[in-house]
């Protein structure tokens, strides 16, 4: 029987850690599989996915910029994918693809189980309204946060995300330009891709409440500037997106194979690799 094939499809995708993560899960669980990274330019997603299916693709992770398109091509969406409006996990069916979204559960599990955070009753600022923000916002609300303030560079996308969440008592869209007067927060989450661009996102230190925790969904180089700003502004804990990455992958693995892999072991391996790379020489 041919080894089932899985992929992460994105643009860019060459530096994705997902092939390493899923290869490790596969060894842990004793489930043979092939998992590759496939680059698909913005207008090439459908063709690339069709080719993946033709070559025995049984599932795929979908990343920037294809998560919305992925949701549109699905026959069925899980509840959490429907609420998010975006899909990061595709499951092959007899007739096409079903879609799920594991980003939200991945973030919440990383924050609560790995970092010991209690999300209940927290006042949260979410910066960004792209695919990742759509994925994590419903899960934060489900985790019992008190209020979710959303700001995004493009105001229309802020409003679209707030409207889609459908909880006007708890969800508050705001303008980026008002960040200086918006108050302070217990938890701030950067869900923008600015860390990949080298551009600056000047933010006022007044956003940081006492004992505020700050999360960047990015990791590695991409998270350095934002988390440095947070530490310099007095944040209590700063957390990058590496744990979320591993947790969302573990949840995707479970969707495909019915088995929850040991995410902690893979997280530790990635942190060790990161430290080794940071040692000069
Ligand atoms: P999208 O392209 O869907 O969204 C990008 C977001 O960043 C938009 O809100 C966009 O605003 C904003 N943005 C981009 N450039 C700037 C800028 N110069 N100033 C202010 N805002 C800007 O990307 P994703 O939502 O998929 O990814 C966002 C981040 O989350 C990335 O760093 C990605 O690596 C990370 N991520 C991490 C995951 C993990 O498992 N750790 C999983 C998924 C994502 P606008 O709408 O105005 O364009």
UniProtKB/TrEMBL annotation:
Domain SDH C-terminal: 241-271
Limits of the Quinate/shikimate 5-dehydrogenase/glutamyl-tRNA reductase domain: 112-193
GO molecular function: shikimate 3-dehydrogenase (NADP+) activity
Catalytic site: 67 (proton acceptor)
Enzyme Commission (EC) number: 1.1.1.25
Annotated positions binding NADP(+): 79, 128-132, 217, 241
Keyword Zinc-finger: no
Residues annotated as domain Shikimate dehydrogenase substrate binding N-terminal: 8-90
Pfam entry (one): Shikimate_DH
UniProt-annotated binding residues for shikimate: 16-18, 63, 88, 103, 219, 248
Family (UniProt): Belongs to the shikimate dehydrogenase family.
Function: Involved in the biosynthesis of the chorismate, which leads to the biosynthesis of aromatic amino acids. Catalyzes the reversible NADPH linked reduction of 3-dehydroshikimate (DHSA) to yield shikimate (SA).
Protein name per UniProt: Shikimate dehydrogenase (NADP(+))
